[in-house]
From TrEMBL:
InterPro entries: PPC_dom. Keywords: DNA-binding. GO terms for molecular function: DNA binding. This is DNA-binding protein. Gene3D superfamilies: Hypothetical protein, similar to alpha- acetolactate decarboxylase, domain 2 (3.30.1330.80). CDD domains: DUF296. The keyword Transport does not apply. Residues 1-133 form the PPC domain. It comes from the Bacteria.
């Protein structure tokens, strides 16, 4: 495993930037080891929800974890985060596209250059689930 620290700046999309960073390292599989920061906009898909909840206020990222997968045309990332709002309410769920950095986000990725992550249909769950393959 190789580690990659990243600092995101205002206006960057959290998910898209992490996927691009993994791809730029010629890697297709990574884990989020740590992540904190702030967001101006967040998309979080709550447990059991079909669509993400959209929030547009100052928020703090309390935790960020999950897998980051990048193949150039199809991503299989699966990240969760907990955020706090200006009133101290804490929400958590799946990280959706459109989580925009307010001031900064500090993320430490663990790159797995010998592996490739994808998401493929799983007949047992009915969802696209993680498939782990050695990278050729």
């Amino acid at each position: 495993m190789k580690t990659l620290p990243i600092r995101l700046t205002p206006g960057q999309d959290l998910r898209a930037t992490l996927e691009a960073a993994v791809l730029a390292q010629n890697c297709r599989a990574a884990f989020v080891l740590s992540g904190i920061g702030s967001l101006s906009t967040a998309g979080i898909r709550l447990a059991g929800a079909a669509q993400p909840t959209r929030l547009t206020e100052s928020m703090e990222i309390l935790t960020l974890s999950g897998t980051v997968a990048a193949s150039g045309d199809k991503t299989g990332s699966h990240m969760h985060m907990a955020i706090s709002t200006t009133t101290g309410q804490v929400l958590g769920g799946h990280v959706a596209p459109g989580c925009i950095v307010l001031t900064t986000a500090e993320v430490l990725l663990g790159l797995l250059p010998d592996w490739q992550f994808t998401r493929e249909p799983d007949s047992l769950t009915g969802y696209d689930e993680l498939v782990i393959r050695p990278r050729n």
